[in-house]
């Protein structure tokens, strides 16, 4: 005679990958369904701080009265 197996079988979906969670379609789906969506603003988003700092430094160098070249040091004490 055939015996039947009545043990429960649990099926689980794999966790979504991080890249799939960042997909705009997935974010919109979560917003529509009322799921949790975390937004984090990047520290320098939309700001070009490095270029502005370079311009200020270049202006200071142009306005400096001293020459930009450094003087040479005698080689006597370097032995």
TrEMBL record:
A GO term, aspect molecular function: DNA binding
Write the record's keywords in alphabetical order, separated by commas: DNA-binding
Which InterPro entries does the record associate with it? MBF1_N (IPR013729)
- Annotated membrane-spanning segments are none
Q: Which domain of life is it from?
A: Eukaryota
**Where's the Multiprotein bridging factor 1 N-terminal domain?**
4-73
- One GO cellular component term, please give it: nucleus
Annotated spans, Disordered: 1-24
Q: What is this protein called?
A: Multiprotein bridging factor 1 N-terminal domain-containing protein
Q: Which organism is it from?
A: Escallonia rubra
